[in-house]
Amino acid sequence: MSTLSGRRFFCSWSGGKDCCLALHRASREGAVLDSLVTMLREDGQRSRSHGLPLDVLKDQADALGVRLITRMTSWDGYRGSLLEALAEARSHGSDLGVFGDIDLEEHRRWVSDVCSEAGVEPLLPLWEAERKTILNELLEEGYVAMIVAVRDESLGPEFLGKTLSADTIRALAAKGIDLSGEGGEYHTVVTDGPVFSRPLRLETGEVASKDGYSFLEVNMPRRRTGTPG
């Protein structure tokens, strides 16, 4: 039996492909997802990492059937805010934290230090996995992920809105970037897959630029009211 069987965990959640596949692998080993932990920008409206709207993150959590734990923070206050969020996750019974890191050793050490201070065990299911293996598994398992941010010096805005597929992966490889975007070359939002009870329906909008990145606006569909006849 897996040592993870029955253990409750939170997932450090960006809304993108790597954290989602890490969640998938932990769940496959019998661990039980309790909550998603996401850091927000100071205004509380978007995720600190990918710039995803809070409503989209809430809808992901709803489709997963779990609570969403958030904290508003600056980069300078990130560690303290994360410790507060982990304390809340632990109060709900999670003594295990799942993270989607692949091979950035400095960040792995940082995660380990923060989790140790918070009294939880870190688990990195994708650690040192081969990039193509990760992406192939994501597709083979049936996950749907859309590119919503690109680093301008690495990829052009034509990649925004593309769904990850064999063709998209080949196009990314042709650019010579890290295929998983581990260096921040691109970010995704996951909209469907086996851990979700239903697919997310997102609307795309304008492209905005900030700090060397281009971001595709994604939102929940607006409710349309009919005109009385």
Fold topology:
Layout lengths: L7 E5 L4 H12 L3 E9 L13 H11 L2 E6 L5 H14 L4 E3 L6 H14 L2 E3 L7 H10 L3 E8 L14 H9 L11 E7 L10 E8 L2 E7 L10
Parallel strand pairs: 1-2, 1-4, 2-3, 4-5
Antiparallel strand pairs: 6-7, 6-9, 8-9
Helix pairs in contact: 3-4
Outline the structure in words.
This protein folds into 2 domains: 8-123, Rossmann fold (3-Layer(aba) Sandwich); 142-219, putative n-type atp pyrophosphatase, domain 2 (Alpha-Beta Complex), CATH 3.90.1490. The protein is 31% helix and 24% strand. It contains 6 helices and 9 strands. It has helices spanning 17-28, 54-64, 78-91, 105-118, 131-140, 166-174, and strands at 8-12, 32-40, 67-72, 96-98, 121-123, 144-151, 186-192, 203-210, 213-219. The strands form 2 sheets. The chain has a 5-stranded parallel beta sheet with strand order 3-2-1-4-5, sandwiched between helices. Helix 3 (78-91) packs across helix 4 (105-118). The longest helix is centred in the middle third of the chain and has 14 residues, at 78-91. The model is unreliable at 224-229 (pLDDT under 50).
Question: What's this model, at a glance?
Answer:
The chain has two domains: 8-123, HUPs (Rossmann fold); 142-219, putative n-type atp pyrophosphatase, domain 2.
Please give the CATH class of the largest domain: Alpha Beta
Contiguous helical run count: 6
Q: What's the average pLDDT?
A: 93
Q: List low-pLDDT spans.
A: 224-229
Strand residues, percent: 15-25%
Order of helices and strands: EHEHEHEHEHEHEEE
Number of E strands: 9
Helix amount: 25-40%
> Would you identify the CATH architecture of the largest domain?
3-Layer(aba) Sandwich
Largest sheet at a glance? Answer: 5 strands, parallel
Looking across the biggest beta sheet, what order are the strands in? 3-2-1-4-5
Report, as a whole number of angstroms, the end-to-end distance.
62 Å
Oligomer: single chain
By CATH, the topology of the largest domain is Rossmann fold
CATH homology group of the largest domain? HUPs
Number of domains: 2
